[in-house]
């Protein structure tokens, strides 16, 4: 992402994104392990009062600070439509939230002309936050860097759940991940923060929506990693939801080879 200029000042964007993350953190903590009721959406995914409350609050804050900007959120869809877009997932990992698992997060992205330029992974229960901008990612204010792992046989490989894969895609992922040093499941957005901080090396997923991945790209790439779709193309609003995030170009290339086999 370091090759892109920002229309707006990076410091202004980062400060405002921090305010949004603070807002999400407070609301999520107020509901966590207290809110257990949920509804089923049309796609059968769960939604809670916390999801709706966080997104509504973030939308209101963005509309006040940047009234001309568009907003895409998981719960309320798209509003507006210009070159400046905020993308929100109020609780990424709602199933974890509902079951008391503290590895869910709020995702906040800012994109210009469809390209994600700023991303925040806010993990309310743990008080952990990654902020990615062109050329730099921080974890709780300190610089974050990927491991640089280059070989698949040395890689610590993550995905959230086998449930998200079609059978043919699962077969490819299963073969790939068994060639790594360690494979683990679970974490939703948290695994991408772990990658950005050097604790895992490769994340491969499918069935994601823009609000699931737009914030992750600046975090991973600002820390020195690479994140694309399964064909190696940059991720944007029109991507198919298949993503690969890797700690080095060599590991990324090895993963793409396995996924195309």
In total, the number of strands is 15
Largest sheet: 8 strands, mixed
Helix fraction by DSSP (H/I, runs of at least 4) = 25-40%
Structural class: alpha+beta
Average pLDDT rating: 93
Q: What shape does the CA trace take? A: globular
Rg for CA atoms: 17 Å
> What spatial order of strands do you see in the largest sheet?
4-3-5-6-7-8-9-10
Beta-strand percentage? Answer: 25-35%
Quaternary structure classification? single chain
Segments where pLDDT lies below 50 for 5+ residues? Answer: none
Count of DSSP H/I helices: 8
Helix-strand topology string: HEEHEEEHEEEEEEHEHEHHEEH
- Termini, distance in Å? 28 Å
Write the layout of secondary structure elements.
Blueprint: H1 10-31, E1 39-40, E2 46-47, H2 49-65, E3 70-73, E4 77-79, E5 84-92, H3 94-98, E6 105-112, E7 115-123, E8 128-133, E9 136-139, E10 142-143, E11 156-159, H4 167-178, E12 182-185, H5 190-196, E13 202-205, H6 210-213, H7 216-222, E14 226-229, E15 243-246, H8 249-259
Parallel strand pairs: 3-5, 11-12, 11-13
Antiparallel strand pairs: 1-2, 3-4, 5-6, 6-7, 7-8, 8-9, 9-10, 13-15, 14-15
Helix pairs in contact: 1-2, 5-7
